[in-house]
Amino acid sequence: MIAVLLAALIAQATPAPQHLPTMFVHAPHATLTLQVANTEDERETGLMSVTHLPKHAGMVFVFEQDAPITFWMKNTLVPLDMVFVAADGTVRSIAANVPVVPETTPDDAIPRRSGTAKFVIELPAGEAATDGIVTGTRLTDLVELHS
Predict the structure, then answer these.
(1) Which among 144, 143, 123 is positioned nearest to 133, based on CA atoms?
(2) Which residues, in sequence order, are CB contacts of 100 under 8 Å at separation 6+?
(3) What is the pTM of this model?
(4) Percent of the chain as helix, strand, coil, to the nearest 5
(5) Which residues in the chain come in under a pLDDT of 50?
(6) Looking at the domain covering 2-144, what would its CATH class be?
(7) CA-CA 20 to 30 A from 47: which of 7, 39, 75, 95?
(8) What does the alpha-carbon distance between residue 134 and residue 128 come to, in Å, rounded to a whole number?
(9) How many Å apart are CA 94 and CA 135, to the nearest integer?
(10) Where exactly are the structural domains of the chain?
């Protein structure tokens, strides 16, 4: 009983990602469980305030077109790998180990990460390499997504 109560308290203290549809993406060394952020509001909220991501889990941001994209890392509380993926599912670039930004950082000093993509996957830091995701990897499951 105490263990159940403790687990419930921990769950309340650790914000979860948004309640969005989930999909599975097959990487070379793992199957990823990703929440799908399709709308502008969902993409803007992203993983803000999330304090923990399990292994092989994260979020995929779906954009209307394959184009240059910049992410602003405000209120991102877990270090991330950001995988920029073309419309055909090919990984173009990876921003690995994007650090947490202290809450006291002024808005104009918050780091940004940029790339050209139709999809951007955010995973726990180090996960892209562990899962075999490198520039040129094909993640064909993403091609089925539409914005």
Answers:
(1) 123
(2) 76, 77, 78, 79
(3) 0.85
(4) 20, 40, 40
(5) 1-16, 147
(6) mainly beta
(7) 7
(8) 7
(9) 7
(10) 2-144
For residues 118 and 142, give the distance between their C-alpha atoms in angstroms, rounded to a whole number: 9
Helices vs strands, H then E, count in the chain: 3, 6
Strands laid side by side in the 80-85 sheet:
22-27, 30-37, 57-72, 112-124, 80-85, 91-98
How far apart are the C-alpha atoms of 116 and 27, rounded to whole Å? Answer: 20
| Burial (CB count <10 Å: 0-12, 13-18, 19+), residue 138 | middle
- Look up residue 108 and give its two tokens: 């104009």
CA-CA-CA-CA torsion for 25, 74, 116, 136, nearest 10 degrees? Answer: -40
Contacts 24+ apart (CB under 8 A), 15-18: 15/49, 15/50, 15/51, 16/50, 17/47, 17/50, 17/53, 17/59, 18/42, 18/45
Enumerate residues 6+ apart whose C-beta is below 8 A from 96: 81, 125, 126, 128, 129
